[in-house]
Amino acid sequence: MKPKVTMIAWNQNDNYVVTAVNNHLLKVWNSSTGQLLHDLVGHADEVFVLETHPFDSRIMLSAGHDGNIFIWDITKGTKTKHYLNMIEGQGHGAVFDCKFSPDGQHFACTDSHGHLLIFGFGCSRPYEKIPDQMFFHTDYRPLIRDSNNYVLDEQTQQAPHLMPPPFLVDVDGNPHPTKYQRLVPGRENCADEHLIPQLGYVATSDGEVVEQVIGQQTVDQDEQGLEPSILDGMIRQLQLQQDQRMGADQESASSGPPNGEGTPRRG
């Protein structure tokens, strides 16, 4: 095997450089002299995650496609903590990304099965408030491109980042209770009736009929004469209100001082 570097990271004070090689080794180098200091052994597959601790220059985190997460002391060349991401009935889950919290007390990882893994000190009670499965009902909505090749949502003809806040659903498309819907930015102060999307039954490609948020139906389904969606109407109404506000802001900005001085008033 021809050795290739897959990832590289400096430690917090830049005294050390850590490289991940495709032979599953991590190598610690002196950043000033280029001298190899340690070989870190533990991974069994390629590593694409190297994260330095935000303030402790000794600590480096690594994670890879073998499902292993290691905390290393790179000054000594030793492992301090190890976790294997095993998924019941499916073997290990490859770890794709990790990040430390700013205070260095926690870190979060995402894996190939869509899980968010949170490690750290203290209790897990704050995280028990949220359901195990969380998706936006628009996550798998079809996209199209306009004449300028920009991406648009097929149903609303709007850029996805300009659409109103979506609803939270589980993996099968069933909406979560209203207390969870208020966790979505932009829905914190909505009335209860605006936090309960309508459910409907939709046939999948293999003929199976599943219950899901009706707002997921597409323009093609509308053309087939399916019952119109109350949720879609709500989304269009929210989008119209948002467009009107943006238009008022633009008019207010264009009516500002002609010489460009001062701050235009918002509509």
TrEMBL record:
The keyword Repeat applies. InterPro entries: Bromo_WD_repeat, WD40/YVTN_repeat-like_dom_sf, WD40_repeat_CS, WD40_repeat_dom_sf, WD40_rpt. WD repeats lie at residues 1-39, 40-82. SMART domains: WD40. It comes from Anseranas semipalmata (Magpie goose). Keywords: Repeat, WD repeat. The keyword Flavoprotein does not apply. Residues 240-267 are annotated as: Disordered. Pfam families: WD40. GO terms for cellular component: nucleus. This is BRWD1 protein. One of its GO terms (biological process) is cytoskeleton organization. PANTHER family: BROMODOMAIN AND WD REPEAT-CONTAINING PROTEIN 1, WD REPEAT DOMAIN 9.
